[in-house]
Specification:
Distance between the termini: 89 Å
CATH topology of the largest domain: Rossmann fold
Radius of gyration: 28 Å
CATH superfamily of the largest domain: Thiamin diphosphate (ThDP)-binding fold, Pyr/PP domains
Shape: globular
Helix content: 40-55%
CATH class of the largest domain: Alpha Beta
Low-confidence stretches: 18-24, 237-243, 454-488
Number of domains: 2
Strand content: 5-15%
Structural class: alpha/beta
């Protein structure tokens, strides 16, 4: 009996130990399996986080549910949210974090006011570069308080100019950027950053949308020159022709921290994208003449409309020549003024066969940065990323500026007939300036009284009052770059 007891005890102890080993191995395998699933979730956000980003200022953009971004899709559950996992290649400043922390970080980086598409790029170096640029900051952009004020000034100058033109020349087509005011600080940031990176010349190509504002508020064209074009038809014919007044080009020298940059806006008689190859050809010729083998001294910037970018073949033709030896220019900075409507069509499946108007650029593996136009700071941050990418890799990059058209296709058009729901929403939506002012007030950067009676605002109002008098039309000169943005 004694031997039997000893034998039984040995067997029991042996099996106890055996079961413990199996249990430990099973637990380890389960943790390792979930770790793999967490890595897959991280990659899913890099691939498709832009589809959950808050891009549309109006909140009307149709967004399909992305199953790849859910816990259940990857075999995870809410019970795992407090479990600590390795962050793998996710660069958030720690090697381990809870699943909840990882998801919050991914949401902030890839699903905020900026959504980026880059993971279809074959180059591992480029994909890692974007991760290193985006992930450590958790999708946030930080500017000093005094760097935020120029955005307000830019928007105020545009707003007052547009109001003056509307009152002085009612019925005249201006194709303003009301609803896309962030284009001004975006373009200004592109110029400043290109200058910082060694550019000596910048060549712009664009159609009619926002051209007046760009001429005055960025390139420094005097209002007297601008208004004389509006007066021309009345003086010569006694009636307004209704034609746009800014087909011709313009050039000026703008100051950047690294010195002056010569900026040229090319002629474009309202044929939308046909100016693209003209600009690119001129840039290549200028680079060759300067023996600019690195393609860093002359930079092309093309500003497109969303419908024309996806709809006109010359865009695809220009893109596919961008990396060829004979025609390459070291990368083009593309800006899409994405009003989310092509004349009368806002339903994307009536306008194109792709989710975004920028999808044609994927054929050359150009990264695409989508950004909410109601967040001018994020817009400027996107411009910084674009300039750095072009400088480092010498390839095209797309800035897709999501916004809206407050006034319809042109100022003589009543859009409420064809887009009643959209324009009911727009009528209630505050301007970019109002949203940004309220943000700065909440951050105690400016006060309520500052926003109502700032010296900058008074300066522009006085200017408009002076310009409304014909006798002083040619006597007043506005220099919008008496201030300069430091956001470079």
């Amino acid at each position: 009996m004694i031997f039997q007891d000893i034998s039984h005890k040995n067997i029991i102890n042996a099996y106890k130990n055996h079961r413990r080993v199996l249990s430990s191995s099973s637990s380890t395998n389960e943790i390792n399996d979930k770790q793999v699933r967490v890595v897959q979730l991280i990659q899913a956000y890099r691939n498709r986080g832009h589809q959950a980003a808050k891009l549309d200022p109006l909140g009307m953009m149709e967004r399909e549910l992305v199953p790849d971004l859910t816990l259940e899709y990857h075999g995870l559950s809410k019970e795992d949210l407090k479990t600590v996992f390795k962050t793998d290649t996710l660069k958030i400043g720690k090697e381990e974090a809870t699943l909840q922390e990882i998801i919050d970080s991914l949401q902030s980086i890839y699903c905020g006011d900026l959504g980026i598409e880059y993971n279809y790029i074959v180059s591992t170096e480029e994909r890692k570069w974007f991760q290193e640029i985006l992930e450590p900051s958790l999708g946030q952009c930080e500017f000093k308080d005094d760097e935020k004020r120029p955005n307000i000034v830019c928007d105020i100058s545009k707003k007052v100019l547009a109001k003056f033109l509307a009152a002085k020349y009612p019925g005249m087509k201006r194709f303003g950027i009301d609803g896309c005011e962030s284009l001004i600080p975006l373009v200004d940031s592109l110029i400043q950053n290109c200058g910082m990176l060694g550019a000596k010349q910048i060549c712009f190509g664009m159609a009619h949308r926002g051209r007046l504002n760009l001429l005055v508020n960025v390139l420094g064209k005097t209002p007297s020159e601008l208004f004389s074009a509006f007066e021309e038809d009345v003086e010569l014919t006694g009636a307004n022709t209704g034609d746009v007044k800014y087909h011709l080009g313009f050039s000026s020298n703008l100051l950047t921290p690294k010195g002056e940059v010569h900026v040229s806006l090319f002629n474009n008689p309202s044929h939308l994208e046909i100016v693209d190859p003209v600009v690119l050809g001129s840039v290549r010729a200028r680079q060759d003449r300067l023996y600019d083998e690195n393609r860093e001294q002359v930079i092309p910037i093309l500003i497109h409309g969303d419908a024309s970018f996806s709809g006109q073949g010359v865009v695809m033709e220009s893109l596919q020549m961008s990396q060829t030896r004979g025609y390459g220019v070291g990368g083009t900075l593309h800006v899409i003024i994405n009003n989310q409507i092509g004349f009368t069509t806002s339903y994307k499946y009536d306008a194109r066969s792709t989710e975004y108007s920028t999808d044609v650029a994927k054929m050359i593996e150009a990264p695409i940065i989508h950004v909410n136009g109601d967040n001018p700071e994020m817009v400027v941050h996107a411009a910084q990323i674009a300039c750095e990418y072009r400088h480092k890799f010498g390839k095209d990059i797309i800035l897709d500026l999501f916004c809206y058209r407050r006034r319809g296709h042109n100022e003589a058009d009543d859009p409420s007939a064809t887009q009643p729901l959209m324009y009911e929403k727009i009528a209630k939506h505050p301007s970019v300036l109002k949203i940004y002012e309220e943000k700065l007030i909440s951050q105690n950067i400016i006060t309520q009284s500052d926003s109502k009676s700032s010296s900058h605002k008074l300066r522009y109002i006085v200017l408009v009052e002076q310009l409304s008098k014909p006798a002083t039309l040619n006597q007043v000169t506005l220099v919008p770059h008496s201030f300069k943005s430091n956001m470079v």
